[in-house]
Amino acid sequence: MTTPHAAFEFLNRSTGAAPLPVPEFEGSEPQKPDTEKPGAEKPLESLATPFRLATAAASALAFGAAAAGEIWRFRGGEKQTVRVDLAAACASLSAPSILRRNGSPIPPHKDETATTGFYQSADRRWLYMRGGFPHLVRRTLELLNAKDNAKSVGEAVSKWNGLALEDAIGFLGLAGAVVRSADEWRAIDSKTAAPITLTKIGEAPPFRPEHSATPLGGLRVLGLTRLIAGEAATWSLAAHGAEVLTIRSPRHAYGDEAAFAAGKHSRELDLAKPGDAEALRQLVRESHIFVDSHRPGALAKLGFSPATLAHTAPGIVTVSLGAYSGSWAPRRGFEAVVQAASGLAAEQGAYLAAKRGRPHEALPALIGAPVLCTLTGYLAAAGAMAAVLRRIREGGSWHVEVSLSATAAWLMSLGRIDAAAMTPRDGLDPYLYSCETKDGWFELLGPVVRMDKTPLLKGVLPDRLDIP
Predict the structure, then answer these.
(1) Could you tell me if 407 and 380 are in contact, meaning their C-beta atoms sit under 8 angstroms apart?
(2) Alpha carbons 416 and 431: distance in angstroms, whole number
(3) Which residues make Cβ contacts (< 8 Å) with residue 138, sequence separation at least 6?
(4) Listed residue (298, 379, 368, 370) closest to 332, CA to CA
(5) Is 208:76 a contact under the CB 8 Å cutoff?
(6) Mean pLDDT across 181-191
(7) What pTM was estimated for this model as a whole?
(8) What is the mean pLDDT of the chain?
(9) What is the rounded CA–CA span in Å between residue 35 and residue 421?
(10) Contact criterion met (CB below 8 Å) for 17 and 392
């Protein structure tokens, strides 16, 4: 079993950010409440899992905060204490379910397509496919020669060998994976990357930021992000004082990631247009951190690879968030697909079957909250701050790499608990706040990290979210 302190020290050593002050972790890994007691709250089943979610979330957030505190010390600040409550950190992994508009929960985004879900192949292997976007739905149905209903898709999948279908899905740039055990996944990705990888990719003089009231005050962040991982990363940087500008496609509206929209500005650019691409290059020259959550290579084709960015803006920190690391890095993936491929879904299904007293009836199942995406976002932000710290100490341009699959492997390495079911609103009052926009009155979860000298900023939501 790994403690939060041990998980923090692992991140600290693996990124070369040490020495950093050791944070304080409060509370313990939340256990399943006794629902038999009168008045006991019903646990949030989406977080009913044996994995040590609180340890992972708290250590990732604390590592980022410790790096931020050290950056602030280099800017003339004082040494300070970092504190994280484990239960609040765990609850933050389901932040979209906590978000309220005019007092009511915002329904989560759901794929209204049969191309999303678990299906069994001819060789009795389970696969998870994710349609995700209309063009992926259409191309998946074309591959299967099926109609968009569960019966037709199920019959089509049942005619395929599972691994053959997975290969076809990967070759066509679609999203899907065979459900594997953790051991099966390690056989594919035997050199699983650390949860955060830092690489020096260019020369630049050491960074000398001026004094600021916040650790990242005056640092400009460009976020070419979509979906929760990228949004959680830039939200975390904004909470430490960075000026975040999110570049959005004119065709994109907020979905579940609205929970991480506070404290940021946005601008619409279509990078397929030369004028908009040049506008982005000018923004790069004025930025310190560039966060990219597109598929590997997508922005490189448009002239925005990490190496090109380091040449354009020497000293810049580039952050790449992907679904997979290693040999699967080019593949398209989503939270649920990576849960299936990495071994999480198989173990989650076994856990739920045992909980029902029917261990021999185990079927693959998903953790119902976007835990990998949110954790990966936290790790990306922490990696970015560790890279800024190394730039202060050593100089250079730095590339930070994180992936959902590496996060999954790290999460599974932390050990297990009997249960981690909790109600995310229980005990969260100190971290909740409200703000008004043209879309309504919102209640949302703010940062759950506490720093005694530079409290994290809550930020306001954009004036219009355009939530579907």
Answers:
(1) no
(2) 27
(3) none
(4) 298
(5) no
(6) 86
(7) 0.94
(8) 90
(9) 11
(10) no
Please compute, for residue 96, the number of CA atoms within 13 A of its CA located in the half-sphere on the CB side: 22
Q: Over the stretch 57-83, which tens digit does the pLDDT of each residue have?
A: 999 999 999 999 999 999 999 999 999
To which residue do tokens 């579940």 refer? 256
Distance CA 83, CA 53 (A): 17
- Characterize 435-459 residue by residue with b for buried, 16 or more Cβ atoms within 10 angstroms of its Cβ, and e for exposed: eeeebeebebbbbbbbbeebebbbb
Query: Cα(403)–Cα(420) distance, rounded to whole angstroms?
Result: 24
- Report CA-CA distances (Å) from 463 to 262, 266, 439, 460: 10, 11, 8, 9
Q: Please say whether the dihedral angle defined by the alpha carbons of residues 342, 345, 347 and 348, taken in this order, is positive or negative.
A: positive
Q: Rounded to whole angstroms, how far apart are CA atoms 263 and 460?
A: 5
Q: What are the tokens at 323?
A: 């679904």
Rg (CA), the chain: 22
Residue in the block written with tokens 């041990």? 6
Is the predicted pLDDT of residue 29 greater than 90, yes or no? no
Query: What tokens does 242 get?
Result: 């960075």
pLDDT surpasses 50 at 42: no
The backbone torsions φ and ψ at residue 165, rounded to the nearest 5 degrees and listed phi first, read -65, -40
Secondary structure, 3-state, the chain: CCCHHHHHHHHHHHHCCCCCCCCEEECCCCCCCCCCCCCCCCCEHHHCCCECHHHHHHHHHHHHHHHHHHHHHHCCCCCCCEEEEHHHHHHHHHHHHHCEECCEECCCCCCCCCCCEEEECCCCCEEEECCCCHHHHHHHHHHHCCCCCHHHHHHHHCCCCHHHHHHHHHHCCCCEEECCCHHHHHHHCCCCCCCCEEEEEECCCCCCCCCCCCCCCCCEEEEECCHHHHHHHHHHHHHCCCEEEEEECCCCCCCHHHHHCCCCEEEECCCCCHHHHHHHHHHHHCCCEEEECCCCCCCHHHCCCHHHHHHHCCCCEEEEEECCCHHHCCCCCCHHHHHHHHCHHHHHHHHHHHHCCCHHHCCCCCCCCCHHHHHHHHHHHHHHHHHHHHHHHHCCEEEEEEEHHHHHHHHHHCCECCCCCECCCCCCHHHEEEEEECCEEEEEECCCEEECCCCCCCCCCCCCCCCC
